[in-house]
Design goal:
Elements lengths: L4 E3 L10 E3 L5 E8 L2 E4 H10 L9 H22 L4 H26 L5 H10 L12 H16 L1 H12 L7 E9 L2 H12 L11 E6 L10 H8 L11 E6 L8 E12 L6 H31 L2 E3 L7 H7 L9 E9 L2 H8 L5 H11 L3 H4 L4 E6 L12 H7 L11 E2 L6 E10 L6 H15 L9 E5 L2 E5 H9 L11 H21 L5 H25 L6 H11 L9 H13 L2 H10 L10 H31 L2 E3 L13 H4 L2
Parallel strand pairs: 1-16
Antiparallel strand pairs: 2-3, 3-4, 3-16, 5-6, 5-8, 7-8, 9-14, 10-11, 10-13, 12-13, 14-15
Helix pairs in contact: 1-2, 1-18, 2-18, 3-17, 3-18, 4-5, 6-9, 9-17, 10-15, 19-20, 20-22, 21-22
Length: 662
């Protein structure tokens, strides 16, 4: 049956078209799509979320998009079931995040700490304040109302803010200055005579012309006498006069000084702006300061209000964790070594170039080593650990560990220069010291500390992680659900401890929102509806693509016989079934259009049939969109739509010939 667009608002009773929201106002029913209802709140939320459509000439198009989404939703519910477990699970996991968004965006940023009821009450009691606002709906005026309410409620603080900030809008006084600076008194005297003779300042050697403001950070203005001469009570006048000052740069040294000659060429006095000139700017700044403070501090303030806190997590049996992670608690491997230290690298090269037993090496160390601490014990350094500094003043020797890696006892190193001392060393490997697992008793405290910090352990799903006034509000299962939304390769970056920081903030906003009744507000209900529609429609879209775009198994087999080799290169059917399904539903005209509009791109193929595989690869992304548009068009033809408000008429058909050709 073809869809019927029915204009019924004049025929049906008002009671059948509206539903009460918790603030006592009416949420008007503006359209019905099958058994789905679209309310004014759904439309208003869409306008807020899609500013490009928030203009009267776009309203019909926006409603048409909402209708199309509801038609898709009906198909999704029929195919996936209603209720659907996946949808309900996702909605439950989104609840806190959605309500947090309502609190932050609507209540704090837009409503400036007011409920819709408070703003509506003010709007209705002060209609004259909004005569100049071009608002067709209260929701269009809501932000403007919130600003007026907030400013009225905080009038005293606003006046203090005005007083403190108005000074910053003052345009400072400015002078055009000609000056001469020198520590040579004879040069200064010549310039003074030139000025007294009324010579043009630009003709006087050494004179500098520059514009300065009284707030400028200029070297000249750091001297108070100069500043007073330019901007003080008895400042130089623009009358040809000049002033010579002696500036002392070092009070302790009388010889540390210079002279500066000042002549003001022109002067612009300071200009102060009136409050009315800058009131809009100051009001915005005042409001912004409130929003910034709320966004920074509200979460912690709410946590205190509701005694919301993370509970101490008692790690599971530390011994059990230790037993399953022993590789994390091994000693650092190393070597037992002897050495000879010298400033003569050539002498050490002779040692390296001869076969040596440990006894031979010890004798050489006792006779030629320059390290007195090890020389007396035959060059014994002892046990050294990989990446650790060596004792006896030897320091870091990274090359040593690289050379002895995989070597056996008796190996002798090359001549190695110590980075920190510049001395040369030759080492003898007596034995390798492999890493060993540390006893549990030795690392028990470390294991417990790491468990508490990392959260790298399994908890029962019912484990309580956060409470409000002693009552559980976040469980381990909530963390697990959130982790499941994160791509597997990224989950290590979001351990329990990190996710809990987000979740406890969300919970704070939820508790405050519920106390304010925001969970019953039109915008929360609308955003929940929008989210549910989006989730259902995403599931259906994915399902259609994963089920070969509606092509039956029998048709896939026939299509594979015909195109499996020529278009898909002989790949197995189970590997290409989704792409094959899309190919079989793609109109031939779409492929030909791509081919003939881009012949140069397909010049290596003898004809269109041979190029089909390459052509399809080029258009596959676009054809997915086209397939979905055709599917939506079919849904549009069989779903009855009723529009109840003339504002949205005539109804725009997204899938008419004219719309599709745009």
């Amino acid at each position: 049956m073809n869809k019927k667009i029915i204009f019924l608002f004049a025929l049906l009773s008002v009671a059948g078209l509206v539903g009460c929201n918790p603030f006592g106002t009416k949420d008007e029913l503006i359209a019905r799509v099958g058994d789905e209802k679209i309310y004014r709140s759904d439309f208003d939320l869409a306008r807020i979320m899609q500013p490009a459509y928030n203009k009267p000439e776009k309203y019909a198009e926006l409603l048409s998009n909402l209708i199309s989404d509801r038609e898709f939703l009906i198909a999704a519910r029929e195919k996936l079931g209603d209720p659907n477990e996946s949808v309900e699970k996702k909605m439950a996991s989104l609840h806190d995040r959605l309500l947090s968004r309502i609190y932050q965006q609507f209540y704090v940023v837009e409503n400036l700490g007011h409920t819709e009821e408070q703003l509506l009450d003010y709007y209705e009691k002060h209609p004259d304040l909004f005569k100049n606002d071009t608002c067709k709906f209260f929701t269009d005026c809501r932000v403007s109302v919130a600003k007026k309410v907030y400013l009225a409620e905080n009038a005293d603080s606003l006046n203090v803010f005005f007083e403190s900030r108005l000074k910053s809008y003052k345009k400072p006084a400015e002078v055009e200055l000609a000056y001469f600076k020198s520590n040579d008194s004879l040069s200064v005297e010549k310039v003074q005579k030139s000025l007294e003779a009324n010579k043009v300042v630009d003709s006087i050697p050494g004179m500098v012309r520059e514009k300065l403001t009284e707030t400028q950070n200029h070297a000249l203005l750091k001297t108070m006498a100069v500043r007073e001469s330019l901007f003080g009570k008895d400042a130089l006048k623009v009358d040809g006069s000049f002033k010579t000052l002696k500036v002392q740069t070092n009070e302790k040294n009388s010889d540390s000084s210079y002279y500066v000659i000042l002549k003001v060429m022109s002067r612009t006095p300071a200009v102060e702006k009136t409050l009315e000139e800058v009131r809009p700017s100051l009001e915005r700044a005042f409001i912004d300061s409130y929003v910034d403070k709320m966004m920074r501090e509200s979460a912690n303030n709410i946590k205190e209000k509701f005694v919301l806190k993370l509970e101490k997590i008692e790690p599971p049996n530390a011994r059990a964790y230790y037993d399953s992670h022993k590789d994390n608690y091994k000693t650092t491997p190393g070597f037992e070594v002897y050495h000879i230290e010298s400033t003569d690298s050539l002498a050490l090269m002779k040692v390296v170039n001869q076969p040596l037993t440990l006894l031979d090496f010890k004798k050489l160390a006792s006779s030629m080593s320059m390290n007195e601490a090890t020389k007396v014990q035959g060059g014994l350094v002892g046990e050294v650990k990989v990446s650790h500094a060596l004792p006896f003043g030897i320091g870091m020797m990274p090359q040593l560990f690289d050379e002895f890696k995989g070597k056996h006892s008796g190996a002798v190193s090359s001549v190695i220069k110590a980075p920190n001392t510049g001395r040369y060393h030759v080492f003898y490997l007596n034995k390798e010291i492999p890493s060993e697992v540390k006893p549990f008793e030795r690392v028990e405290a470390q294991v417990k500390k790491e468990l508490a910090q990392s959260g790298d352990f399994v908890l029962d799903s019912s484990y309580v992680l956060a409470t409000s006034k002693g009552k559980p509000v976040i469980y381990e299962r909530d963390v697990l659900n959130l982790q499941s939304e994160i791509p597997p390769e990224e989950r290590r970056m979001y351990p329990r401890t990190r996710l809990l920081q987000y979740m406890i903030d969300w919970k704070a906003y939820v508790l405050e929102s519920e106390a304010l009744g925001l969970d019953e507000s039109w915008y929360f209900k609308a955003i929940e509806t929008s989210s549910r529609v989006g989730i259902y429609n995403k599931l259906l879209s994915d399902s259609l693509q994963l089920t070969s775009w509606g092509v039956s198994e029998a048709d896939l087999k026939v299509g594979y016989e015909k195109y499996g080799k020529t278009v898909f290169g002989g790949a197995a059917l189970d590997q290409i079934s989704n792409s094959l399904g899309l190919f079989l539903t793609t109109p031939e005209i779409s492929l030909k259009r791509e081919y003939y509009f881009n012949l140069d791109q397909y010049a290596s193929f003898p004809n269109f049939e041979a190029a089909k595989g390459a052509v399809f690869s080029s258009v596959i992304g676009e054809e997915k969109k086209n397939w979905m548009a055709r599917y939506r068009a079919e849904l549009s033809q069989k779903t009855q739509v009723q529009i109840y408000d003339s504002l949205f008429l005539p109804k725009i058909d997204n899938y008419s010939r004219d719309s599709l050709l745009k």
